[in-house]
Design brief:
By secondary structure, this protein is of the alpha/beta class. The chain has twelve helices and 14 strands. β12, α10 and β13 form a beta-alpha-beta unit.
C-alpha cells in the first residue's frame, strides 16, 4: 500500500481521520502542533498522542523525506536546496532574507510543460505534479534544517501552480492554519503564467492570497513568441481575468516582467506595458534575467533596466526592480536542477 504524506492533510481532514478512527477531534490539533510547531520528524516524538493512534498513523502515513542533493548559500544569505524525493526526482526550494523577514519559494511540479523561452524549469518538460504534502514538506524541512521561522511564502518555484490547483489549495490551507505554521494569507503569493480559468477560480477561493502574473511582454505577438501559454490565453482574456480578480478581492496584483536584452526591453514595450495596465491597482516587478546557458538569452543592461523603469514611472506606473538575490549561486528557477542533471549525464558518460 502506498502511504500518504504526513504533511498532506488539512486540519479538517485530520479531524475526519481521528474521529473516524474512534479518537476525539482535539487529537487533530495535537498532531498539527507536533508537525508544524514542534516540527518533529517521527511518530515516536508525538508524546501526547496515544500509542494506538500512532500505530495507525504509521501504517497510513509517511514523513515525506527530502534528501539534500545540494545546498548552496549565497553571500546575501539566500539558501538554495536541491532535494531528492523518494521516487528519485529532484526539486528546488529557496529561502530568501528580506528586511521584513524570511521568505521561502516553493516548487509545485517536477519540471514544467508551459515552455517559456527564458525559464530553466521547462528544460526536460513536465514529469509530474507534486502532492500537497511534498509542497508543505519543503517549508517544514527548510525551517527545521536552518532552525528558522518562515513568515512569507511565494509559490514561484518550478512548475505552473495553477496546473496543480488542488494540491496548491490544500497547501495554502495547511500552512495558513493558526494551529500550524500560521503563515498569514496576505503573506502568501502565488505566481501564474496566466491560466485564465484558474485566475477566476483563485479569485473566488483565496481572496486574501496575493496573485502575481508572469507577464513579460505587453503585446500578443511578442508574448506568444516567448510564452506559448499566450496562444491559449491571449492578453485580452488575461486582462479580463485580472480585472475580475481585482474586483473580487480588492487586492493589488503584481505583474512580473523579466527583462531580456533586445527581446522585450525596448522603450516602445515600456510604453505599451503602461497602456496595457493603465488604471489597474497593480505593481510591476522588473526582474533582471538570470542567464541560463542552454536558453541562449541574456539579461538587459543595467542602464536599459533603469530606462525601462523610468518610462513606466513617467507613465504613472507603480514599479520596482527586484533586488537580486543568490547572485553567486544557481539562483534562476530550475537552474540548480538542470545543473545537477547535466552533472549526472557527464558522470555517466
Amino acid at each position: 500500500m502506498n502511504k500518504r504524506s504526513i504533511y498532506g492533510l488539512t486540519m479538517d481532514e485530520w479531524e475526519d481521520f481521528v474521529v473516524t478512527n474512534g479518537q476525539p477531534k482535539f487529537r487533530a490539533a495535537q498532531i498539527f502542533d507536533w508537525l508544524y510547531v514542534k516540527q518533529v520528524a517521527s511518530f515516536d516524538e508525538m508524546l501526547n498522542v496515544p500509542k494506538a493512534l500512532k500505530a495507525l498513523m504509521t501504517n497510513v502515513f509517511d514523513f515525506t523525506t527530502f534528501e539534500v542533493v545540494r545546498h548552496q548559500e549565497a553571500s546575501d544569505g539566500t539558501h538554495k536546496f536541491l532535494f531528492r524525493l523518494p521516487d528519485k526526482n529532484t526539486i528546488e526550494t529557496v529561502l530568501m532574507k528580506h528586511a521584513y523577514g524570511l521568505s521561502i519559494c516553493v516548487t509545485t511540479q517536477i519540471g514544467c510543460r508551459i515552455g517559456c523561452s527564458f525559464c530553466a524549469s521547462t528544460i526536460g518538460g513536465l514529469v509530474r505534479n507534486l502532492e500537497a504534502g511534498e509542497i508543505v514538506g519543503q517549508v517544514v524541512h527548510v525551517a527545521r534544517a536552518l532552525q528558522v521561522r518562515i513568515g512569507h511564502v511565494v509559490v514561484m518555484g518550478i512548475g505552473e501552480p495553477f496546473e496543480n490547483y488542488g494540491a496548491l489549495t490544500n497547501f495554502i490551507h495547511i500552512i495558513n492554519h493558526d494551529k500550524g505554521l500560521n503563515i498569514g494569507a496576505r503573506h502568501i503569493t502565488v505566481s501564474t503564467s496566466g491560466i485564465v480559468p484558474k485566475i477566476y477560480e483563485f479569485a473566488d477561493d483565496h481572496k486574501q492570497v496575493s496573485l502575481a502574473i508572469s507577464l513579460h511582454a505587453p503585446n500578443d505577438h511578442l508574448r506568444t513568441t516567448i510564452m506559448k501559454i499566450n496562444r491559449a490565453y491571449p492578453l485580452s482574456d488575461l486582462m479580463k481575468a485580472v480585472r475580475y480578480y481585482l474586483k473580487e478581492t480588492k487586492r493589488r496584483i503584481t505583474f512580473e516582467y523579466i527583462l531580456m536584452k533586445d527581446v522585450n526591453d525596448l522603450d516602445e514595450y515600456a510604453y505599451q506595458l503602461a497602456k496595457l495596465i493603465k488604471g489597474m491597482n497593480c505593481h510591476v516587478n522588473l526582474i533582471p534575467m538570470n542567464a541560463v546557458a542552454e536558453l541562449g538569452l541574456s539579461r538587459s543592461s543595467k542602464s536599459q533596466v533603469m530606462r525601462f523603469k523610468e518610462i513606466l514611472e513617467k507613465e504613472k506606473v507603480n514599479v520596482t526592480v527586484r533586488r537580486e538575490m543568490g547572485a553567486n549561486i544557481d539562483a534562476a528557477c530550475g537552474q540548480l536542477r538542470a545543473t545537477e542533471r547535466a552533472r549526472q549525464r557527464d558522470k555517466a558518460n
